[in-house]
Amino acid sequence: MQGKWGKAASVLMAGVVAASLTACGKEEKPASSPNASPGPSSEPSESAAPKTVSLDWLTYQYGPVDNDAPIKKFVEDKFNVKLNIWYMDVTQREQLLGTKLASGEIPDFMTVYSGADLQKFYTQGVTVGYTEEELNQYMPNYKKLVDSYDPKIWDYVKYDGKYIGIPSINSDGVYSLATAWRQDWLEKVGITKVPETLEEYKEALVKFRNDDPDGNNKKDTYGMSNSGMTNVYGAYGVYPEFWTIRDGQIVWSGILPETKKALETLREWKQEDLISPEWVIGENTGGYWAISHDFVNGKIGVSSHGSYYHWSPADPETNFLGGDNTKMLAEVTKGEGKIAYGKPPVGPDGKFGNITPGLVGGTYMAFGKDAADDETRHRIMQIWDTVYGDFDTFVKVKYGDKGVHHDNGPDGHTIVMKEGFKTNEEMAKIGAHITFSPFAQPEFSKKLQDPKRVGANDKYFKFEGAGYENAVKSPLPSDSKYSKNLIKLQQDTFTAIINGEKPLEEFDKFVEEWKSSGGDQLTKEANEWYQSLK
Question: What is the pTM of this model?
């Protein structure tokens, strides 16, 4: 967000949100002087007896946190804070947060799910920033962690000389999305090896649709749904909702000729009835977002839904039941359903891959406007830095107490939650999971992993030369003005083309409309950002 491009004015939020900034929320805290120096210590001092600070906390955990949750009480006692932990369904976050903001309620600390929103909230006064000095004094451990991966990550959350959010590290960014096949289906239809090319991919889809892979004597199975489309785009060298680099310039992948070729293939497959009729709705029918219900319930035979670790293979030796989709498939099929792991299919020009995100995370933490008060902001920083700088604290807030909420697995490394604390909702009740540790801590995670499982991840989900990541790592000045509408335009057009509601030639009209509706401006800003890094 640095440089000339980062100083452009952003479009204001909806009037109802802007008006909320002057509405009556919780009691106003005194604002700090912009020249105020950071307060003492990076760790709460018992001798200093700091006053109790009230914090509104929003990390979109998977269920409500009990008022007397043990981990909530641990954090309150350790840092002398009083926590009001908000619960919002993350799938409705825009609507629910908008309602809160409209009533003048703004959390002191909150998860933000895109760089565009991070910049938007800051420019409109919903959130506040912090200085380099504060970063060094109050979050030295987290700074050291981020710097060990890429110090430039901090540049992506800087705007007009201030840091406007806390960045995340995507330590899993070297892994592609899973390409998970129903192995029992492949065997049933006579396919003896996991498909490797786009042609073989299609051959399997045809057999899944026509050869009754589930053996129920009904034509009720399909090849794939929406997540499989990512692999088809990848076979043509693109992921259509990312910026990419062509001939030294930043361009939007969704308007490239390769995307049109992928759409032509998907359109043909849809006409041949290989793609689920409900693909627009998606593979998840509710509950935990990462579950492909279409896959585990036997509607489709290949999926890349969720993240790679949601498909981790089971390991009977350590009693590891596998990732969420692996576990659910075993439960639904009573152990008869098997998964075969493949690579994204290779396309006609030798290209292959799907989303491989890279190290820069797409999620941020931000300080609400009431955290303009130094003591509030610094106390939050101290909590964050201790959680991500002290292994024992991280384990405590992530998993609770050993012997009460969890134990170590047979390998001596992994954490196994005890009965009553196994589901995401059960963990949320006690204040665990992502309530106080919404980001990954890669170095701590290594200590909690069975080395054999790391090897499995490398084997099944890491592919040399595969994968597409977004070339633009920071929000653009006009993102909030144009991006949402442009994405909708693209999705609506692509859906209509794939479903046969519009001809393939509609793509060319879409490209021109995309450019004239803000795409050219975003492309200009993307290249200004790119040049500013050189």
Answer: 0.73
